[in-house]
Design a protein that fits this description.
about 130 residues, 2 helices, rod-shaped
């Protein structure tokens, strides 16, 4: 019989027990490392979510302020400019001809801000009445 294959030799049992302890320690170290790594990644992702929420809130506030500024200032300024331009066009026939491209039906008057009527236009051509 070969002494290395005997399962009852004290040196082989000691070396197997030592190998098992080493493997057990290696697995425990690997598990602890994985727990620490997953905790670090979780903390990192939590901080990223917090930062994105803060940036989203800031962007939302900024967009609302920009929309409010446009509504209050720029839109009214554009309407005032359009009105002044059309008034000037009434005095200047060259400009009136150019503005006729943009306001052909109004021929120099600003478009009305009244809503369209709820009745549909007649279906008969204007010459056949």
């Amino acid at each position: 019989m070969d002494p290395h294959h005997s399962s009852s030799s004290p040196t082989s049992l000691d070396s197997l027990a030592n190998d098992v302890r080493t493997l057990r320690l290696s697995v425990q170290v690997a598990l602890v490392s994985l727990v620490i790594l997953s905790a670090a990644i979780g903390l990192y992702l939590f901080r990223q979510v917090q930062m994105i929420r803060r940036q989203t809130e800031f962007s939302t506030r900024t967009a609302e302020q920009m929309a409010k500024n446009y509504t209050l200032n720029l839109a009214t300024q554009a309407v005032d400019f359009e009105r002044q331009l059309l008034e000037f066009a009434k005095k200047n026939p060259d400009l009136q001809a150019r503005l006729a491209k943009f306001y052909p039906a109004h021929s120099g008057t600003p478009p009305s801000s009244t809503p369209p009527s709820s009745t549909p236009p007649s279906s008969t051509p204007p010459g056949n009445r």
